[in-house]
Amino acid sequence: MSDEAVKYLLDDSEMPTHWYNVVADLPTPPPPPLHPGTHQPVGPDDLSGLFPPELIAQEVTAERFVEIPRAVREVYRLWRPSPLFRARRLEAKLATPARIYYKYEGVSPAGSHKTNTSVPQAYYNSINGITRLTTETGAGQWGTALAFACSLFGMHCDVWQVGASFDSKPARRTLMETFGATVFRSPTRDTESGRAFPEGHPGSLGIAISEAVEVAAQQDDVKYALGSVLNHVLLHQTVIGEEALLQLAKAGESGADLVIGCAGGGSNLAGLTFPFVREKLAGKQNPRLIAVEPAACPTLTRGEYRYDFGDTAGLTPLMKMYTLGHDFVPSAIHAGGLRYHGMAPLVSHLVHEGHIAAVALHQNECFAAAIEFARTEGIVPAPESSHAIALARQEALACAESGEDKVIVVGLSGHGMLELGAYESYLAGGLADEALSEEALTAALAGVPQL
Amino acid sequence: MSDEAVKYLLDDSEMPTHWYNVVADLPTPPPPPLHPGTHQPVGPDDLSGLFPPELIAQEVTAERFVEIPRAVREVYRLWRPSPLFRARRLEAKLATPARIYYKYEGVSPAGSHKTNTSVPQAYYNSINGITRLTTETGAGQWGTALAFACSLFGMHCDVWQVGASFDSKPARRTLMETFGATVFRSPTRDTESGRAFPEGHPGSLGIAISEAVEVAAQQDDVKYALGSVLNHVLLHQTVIGEEALLQLAKAGESGADLVIGCAGGGSNLAGLTFPFVREKLAGKQNPRLIAVEPAACPTLTRGEYRYDFGDTAGLTPLMKMYTLGHDFVPSAIHAGGLRYHGMAPLVSHLVHEGHIAAVALHQNECFAAAIEFARTEGIVPAPESSHAIALARQEALACAESGEDKVIVVGLSGHGMLELGAYESYLAGGLADEALSEEALTAALAGVPQL
């Protein structure tokens, strides 16, 4: 162990002041979302029932950089910059010449990257007189993040939590309530979308989205907030990659060879990688960018690139994306945040165009890597983040074979302090760990609209 | 909200290189610990079965400063410096002219200050050929911290967890196991100390200490590690206060008016306040230093300053300290880390000599303050830490009345991510919240040896 630094931060004066919009630099624009009824491109008016004007503008902007409002930057400073760590102990354990850096978003109030977008979303809604936000949550990270953000801006927050998660993770519900939110077990009996399912149904992210959207659409001073998938959400997350670029430079690196993030809805991956896409397109560095997803929900690696709904009930616009079918219910893997049938259209577009690669891993390998990481670096990763760590481990071991001293940047999107039940199951003898079957995949894709 | 900084860190070059030994500056030396059999002052030989020579030397050193070994500083850098935050949002909420700073130890691998001492303890044992450390844990913070430290230095870690905590907090056990430890429910059937209690007994910290000490004393390559109370533990924690002094200066403050920490065994309080004691004795600043304890376990405010055992079975040396009696079992308040019958002899001495004041608070007030803190500052405090926050809140509101712009420094010793069950109970309608009765106190003190 050398006496060199392991943690890189940024001074207040160095903090990013703008989010980065990758669309401005793409040779081909991403296909537009379509209205679920008319199948025509969605315009700003179609979204005004759900989102405030600033977020709608960000959803379609062609500007390269969007200024982060001062009120948002002031909140960001509670946990930003998130630290970039050099994983020297893990490197030593793996006996690799690779230099592994991890960008750690678990320092945020919600314990994950989600507050990077919940705070601006709450802010823009608050300055438009909105008094209440509705949303869904699966693993609970997003619901926690929005609950916190609403508490700062004096708004109420209603969260529809996927039933299975609500039942098995009381601590997540308590955390949302501690931040002031009201939490419902989805599906509820209170919405049309919820009543379509039998009482006690375990729910899904798609169903919970339908419920939250349905409620928000009914009242003028209530809006909806989404934690991933949409362009404006991905935009807000780019603060991760912007910081990482500055921190890598502080660490004396001229660039990254590999940038690895887990991908569920795609916002964590986008936030980390999009600024690297810019550097790559500008010829400044040439990293391989890799999305890691679970073998049980292999949207990018085995889904189809088609127009599909973001939710189960078909209330959202149709989006061109990699999808497993909007009524697909993935098996109950522990990385709840990666159990989504689709993928952000912008991430899908970049994968389709070859800018970002994708790999699927089994959860047992991910937990094994996560435990090794905890015992060397001291951070217990969220099950989602463990997917990125497991791939970084593979790549670092390949470097040990080849002798290459690659610079590997890993997105550590959150901590696992509220997911220790998953670790308990893993330590007790491994987890069910099946890949999606061909039959289930074919059946799930049969429900995707023919456009 | 102004545009000023909210978070203060330190550059690598500014990091403390030494721990501070307050004994060197005290006008009166603290009374020595006594051998439990002979009642004579304990010498180094009496401790050599339990601790390695470096820690025994630190236990009795008269040096003002003790260098932090390079190997320890390298591990510290995973989470140190811990941030000093200015609580601007809380100040605004309380409409106080006071400036509230909190020193946040929850960024550590264990989620609390405990790793500040677990790492050097594991290090010194490892360089002495020790292969296994035993310890006890109540709330689980200390067991987690030692499990992590042992994993770094290639030692095994055996943790006796207080039965009630073991039963109600499986996540804590899993976290210790994730870091590689073996966890026993105390009292066990495997030790003489444990067999003195009936099967299924809820246990206590005192019993768990007896079990861990008993096992360590039987084998040469096994030693014991204690998470609080002893001089060397308090010494290691002074890195907190040393950093806080530097960070306050960076924030432009010439000193603190109030320094507030919760106190269970006393190491968190000591770590934060002892460097301020030095500044005070040197006439450089004049802060009031305050220990906050639970009304259900009011060691400093209602205990007696006498020689007593540190554990239930009477295996430890007799220490002059504030005590409620070594067989006192406090009621099941949620701040498990504050449920200790005694108090560090050095803290006791400083309280007795008037350098540090003490206040006892009820847990409902503490949880209410903690929730307000979470909703403004984004951090859910450990139930222990909430005691310091609640007193800071009282003081800040007093400043709002008086118009004084006091500088209040609060020790936020850890986060509450693994204690959300306590928040759930509080949010569901308040907690049992009784102060220790006069009868129970008299009965508990009757067991203290007459010396």
UniProtKB/TrEMBL annotation, chains A, B:
<dbReference type="GO" id="GO:0004834">
    <property type="term" value="F:tryptophan synthase activity"/>
</dbReference>
<dbReference type="InterPro" id="IPR006316">
    <property type="entry name" value="Trp_synth_b-like"/>
</dbReference>
<dbReference type="InterPro" id="IPR006653">
    <property type="entry name" value="Trp_synth_b_CS"/>
</dbReference>
<feature type="modified residue" description="N6-(pyridoxal phosphate)lysine">
    <location>
        <position position="114"/>
    </location>
</feature>
<dbReference type="InterPro" id="IPR023026">
    <property type="entry name" value="Trp_synth_beta/beta-like"/>
</dbReference>
<dbReference type="InterPro" id="IPR001926">
    <property type="entry name" value="TrpB-like_PALP"/>
</dbReference>
<protein>
    <recommendedName>
        <fullName>Tryptophan synthase beta chain</fullName>
        <ecNumber>4.2.1.20</ecNumber>
    </recommendedName>
</protein>
<keyword id="KW-0663">Pyridoxal phosphate</keyword>
<dbReference type="GO" id="GO:0005737">
    <property type="term" value="C:cytoplasm"/>
</dbReference>
<keyword id="KW-0456">Lyase</keyword>
<keyword id="KW-0822">Tryptophan biosynthesis</keyword>
<keyword id="KW-0057">Aromatic amino acid biosynthesis</keyword>
<feature type="domain" description="Tryptophan synthase beta chain-like PALP">
    <location>
        <begin position="78"/>
        <end position="414"/>
    </location>
</feature>
<comment type="similarity">
    <text>Belongs to the TrpB family.</text>
</comment>
<comment type="subunit">
    <text>Tetramer of two alpha and two beta chains.</text>
</comment>
<comment type="function">
    <text>The beta subunit is responsible for the synthesis of L-tryptophan from indole and L-serine.</text>
</comment>
<dbReference type="GO" id="GO:0030170">
    <property type="term" value="F:pyridoxal phosphate binding"/>
</dbReference>
<dbReference type="InterPro" id="IPR036052">
    <property type="entry name" value="TrpB-like_PALP_sf"/>
</dbReference>
<keyword id="KW-0028">Amino-acid biosynthesis</keyword>
<comment type="pathway">
    <text>Amino-acid biosynthesis; L-tryptophan biosynthesis; L-tryptophan from chorismate: step 5/5.</text>
</comment>
<dbReference type="Pfam" id="PF00291">
    <property type="entry name" value="PALP"/>
</dbReference>
<dbReference type="GO" id="GO:0052684">
    <property type="term" value="F:L-serine hydro-lyase (adding indole, L-tryptophan-forming) activity"/>
</dbReference>
